[in-house]
Structures are given as structure tokens and as C-alpha cells.
Structure to design on (463 residues):
């Protein structure tokens, strides 16, 4: 039996950052990873692969529109899956080297195998060679992440019907694809494949996609999707999915609609990876979706057993998971008090094409709180940079208090939205007013100028 100050189950963003934080506090740490390599879903089948694929497709689609810049050149139309995935594999390997370097420099031991609890301080690990080992930890962190939900009635075969991770194994570029689920993963992949020229049909049972976002931005995104040839079936419930004899997929809806396509991406929900941990042995019970409940310190009902990352549910963002793991270990091992809390202002980015990023309040949340607010708009076509990069439909939307002028929320649709959002996040964090943007000089020409234009628009609305 080997003894450690900390045992981490899972090496994704939460597990890696937690392990490094504990090592910085002079603790002996081991990570137990069931996969062949560290990095978790975020690195291998989730965040990085999908965003790298998006960037490749974005460049490809921009080249197809090269005539905007007066350039005439030949571009092959028969691009292959292997060509699309080339850059993805490079990025994964580079990031894997970075993660392994962090763990090595901090003397963190990596154990490859599947962990399960014997008791609240002891883990049994089934090793790849078939043997078993026992590890004991003063503190244990569960950072096992999530996996796509795969309902039994959906005929997943990862050749015709895919989930949000297996879609990266797509064997060829189809002419048509259906996407069931208008959440983040469904919308991102629908945008990616639509920009490849694939005929996309998206189904969602709700009135709008991305239903938790600002309605105005979502409506603008839906317009862009339809403009790009995507068909949206909203408020539509899928009743049956079947693979036909010719390997085509048939989607039947409650309304009676029947759609045929070559491939289907089913992207409705994710579940926590807790079913193999033998949590019954320590008296922990996840909810019906496999997620664990934690307190503000990321402790489970057992004080020395912590959980962080996607396995504890929303917001399920890699950026947030990293901080959750770090903060959990600050509480567990007495880290600096000023680093033991998480900023309440979490930026969200949805990597559709165009991308969306938000931070702070929405119109709907402010209305529910009876807060008197005003809106300032700016469109990319109003700034020179927007014209230069041919992104006229982008938008920056600022929400602010009509009386105090304090900034309350920032919502951006368009190129580089996920980068631009941090300007608004900083002003929000320090309780700044919308006048900050008016009094600030921005580089010219940049998209950041849209903040000034939106602020002036908002102030003008006050009369």
C-alpha cells in the first residue's frame, strides 16, 4: 500500500490543477488516470479537439470566400476527414506535452488504471496489466468528469449515429447530417459542419436554441445559421431514430415529420462518471445524472473527500474546472486565504460560427430582479476592423443601470467574442460604469472599439 497526502481520480482540468496546487503546498500527490494518457475529455475528445476543428473549418470556409479580397485561386472541394483532423492531432500532442511537463516538474506521480473506493481513504486501482494495487490518501479528490448521455432507444453505432465525443471519429464528410439537441455541443458542431457545406438539420424541443442565453443574441445566431443553409426544427420532439438498410438515418418526430440524412449527431445532455467508483462503499450517492453534490469548499458529505470539475455539474467549463480544483486544494491543505475563493463573474463562450460570449446579467435576469436597465448596441459593421475582416453582422451589447450607470452585463456575437469579453469582465469585476468605455482610448482599427460605440449608444438612449 502506498500512502499520499492527496489522491486525485482523473487528470482533466480540475484534477491536473488540483494536483499541482497541492504539490506547491509541499504535499505528496498521485493522479490516477483510467485512460492511456493524461488530460481527460477536455484534451482528447472534448474542448480542444472541437475548437481546433472549428478553427480549421473556419479558415477553410474563409478561403472559399476569398473573392471578397479580390484573390482568385483554386481550392479543392473534396477535403477529407484526415485533412480536417491533422491540426487537431498536433494541438492535442502539444498540449499533452505541456500537461505532462507540469506534472513532472511538480513531482506528481501518475498511475494509469481504474480506481474504486475500498473505504473513504483507500482506493483499489485495476492496472492495465490486469493486476491490482492499493493506494491510501489523507485527502481524495474526485475529478472524473462526464460522458455523453446515450439513451438506450437511440441506436448509437459511431458509424451512422454519433454522440458529442464519437463525432470526432467521423469516417467521411457526408452530404447531409442531422443534429438532435440545440445546446452548446449540438450548436457548435452544427455550425462547424454547416460551414463545410454539409446540409444540416437541427432539432430541439425548446422554442429557441441555447435557451439560457440572451434572447437577442440567440435570434441573431439563428438568423446566421439559416443564412448559411441550416434548417432549424424548434419546438420539435424526436420520437424515434432508426438506421435503414442503406445506412441512412431516419428521424421521426412527434409532429409526424420524417427526416432522412446520412449521419446523425445526438447531443442531449451529459452524465457524471461516477458509476465505477464504488461510492456505496463510502456512503456517497450521486444524483440521477451521476453528479456529486459539494459545499462551497468543494467537499462532499465526507469532509476529506472532495469533488471538482464537470462531475459536480454546471457550469461544466474547463476554465471553471481548473479553478475549482485549485480552490478545493487550498481549502484542503490551508492554502493562501486570498486564493481560496472563485470570482462570481464567470465568462461563457460558445464556439459556434459566429461565436458567442457573455458575462454578467441578461435582460431576462434584470427584468426578474426589477432592476432599471438600459441597453447599448454596437455592430461590427460600425467599426473599421469589422469591415476589414468582413464580419459586418457581429454585435456587442452592453447592459447597464439607468440610474448609477454601472455596467451589469456584456453579450457579444461575432469573431473573437471569446477574447473581447474579458474587457467587459474586468470592468464588471471592479464595479465600473459604462462611461469607462467612453473615456478610454482603444487602438484603431480594432473590434474593441465596439465597446465605445455601444457605450455611446446606451448613453444617448438616456436622452
Amino acid at each position: 500500500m502506498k500512502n499520499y497526502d492527496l489522491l486525485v481520480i482523473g487528470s482533466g482540468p480540475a484534477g491536473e490543477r488540483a494536483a499541482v496546487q497541492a504539490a506547491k503546498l509541499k504535499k505528496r500527490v498521485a493522479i490516477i488516470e483510467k485512460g492511456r494518457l493524461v488530460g481527460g475529455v477536455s484534451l482528447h475528445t472534448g474542448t480542444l479537439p472541437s475548437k481546433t476543428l472549428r478553427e480549421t473549418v473556419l479558415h477553410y470556409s474563409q478561403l472559399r470566400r476569398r473573392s471578397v479580397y479580390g484573390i482568385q485561386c483554386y481550392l479543392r472541394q473534396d477535403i477529407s476527414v484526415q485533412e480536417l483532423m491533422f491540426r487537431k492531432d498536433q494541438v492535442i500532442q502539444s498540449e499533452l506535452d505541456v500537461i505532462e511537463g507540469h506534472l513532472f516538474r511538480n513531482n506528481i506521480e501518475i498511475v494509469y488504471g481504474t480506481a474504486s473506493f475500498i473505504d473513504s481513504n483507500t482506493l483499489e486501482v485495476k492496472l492495465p496489466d490486469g493486476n491490482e494495487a492499493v493506494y491510501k490518501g489523507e485527502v481524495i479528490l474526485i475529478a472524473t468528469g462526464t460522458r455523453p448521455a446515450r439513451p438506450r432507444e437511440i441506436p448509437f453505432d459511431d458509424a451512422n449515429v454519433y454522440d458529442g465525443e464519437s463525432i470526432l471519429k467521423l469516417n467521411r464528410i457526408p452530404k447531409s447530417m442531422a443534429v438532435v439537441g440545440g445546446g452548446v455541443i449540438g450548436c457548435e458542431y452544427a455550425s462547424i459542419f454547416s460551414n463545410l457545406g454539409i446540409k444540416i438539420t437541427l432539432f430541439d424541443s425548446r422554442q429557441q436554441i441555447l435557451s439560457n442565453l440572451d434572447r437577442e443574441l440567440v435570434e441573431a445566431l439563428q438568423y446566421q445559421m439559416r443564412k448559411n443553409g441550416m434548417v432549424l426544427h424548434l419546438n420539435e420532439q424526436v420520437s424515434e431514430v432508426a438506421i435503414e438498410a442503406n445506412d441512412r438515418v431516419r428521424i421521426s418526430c412527434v409532429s409526424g415529420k420524417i427526416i432522412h440524412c446520412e449521419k446523425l449527431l445526438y447531443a442531449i445532455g451529459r452524465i457524471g462518471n461516477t458509476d465505477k467508483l464504488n461510492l456505496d462503499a463510502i456512503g456517497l450517492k450521486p444524483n440521477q445524472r451521476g453528479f456529486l453534490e459539494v459545499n462551497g469548499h468543494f467537499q462532499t458529505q465526507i469532509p476529506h473527500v472532495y469533488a471538482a470539475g464537470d462531475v459536480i455539474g454546471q457550469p461544466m467549463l474547463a476554465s471553471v474546472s481548473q479553478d475549482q480544483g485549485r480552490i478545493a486544494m487550498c481549502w484542503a491543505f490551508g492554502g493562501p486565504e486570498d486564493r481560496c475563493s472563485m470570482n462570481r463573474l464567470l465568462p461563457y463562450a460558445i464556439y459556434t460560427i459566429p461565436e458567442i460570449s457573455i458575462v454578467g446579467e441578461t435582460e431576462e435576469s434584470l427584468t426578474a430582479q426589477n432592476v432599471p436597465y438600459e441597453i447599448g448596441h454596437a455592430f461590427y459593421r460600425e467599426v473599421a476592423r469589422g469591415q476589414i475582416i468582413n464580419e459586418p453582422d457581429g454585435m456587442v451589447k452592453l447592459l447597464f443601470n439607468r440610474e448609477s450607470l454601472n455596467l451589469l452585463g456584456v453579450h457579444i456575437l461575432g469573431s473573437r467574442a471569446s477574447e473581447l469579453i474579458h474587457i467587459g469582465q474586468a470592468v464588471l469585476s471592479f464595479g465600473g460604469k459604462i462611461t469607462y468605455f467612453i473615456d478610454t482610448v482603444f487602438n484603431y482599427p480594432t473590434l474593441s472599439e465596439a465597446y465605445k460605440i455601444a457605450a455611446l449608444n446606451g448613453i444617448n438612449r438616456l436622452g
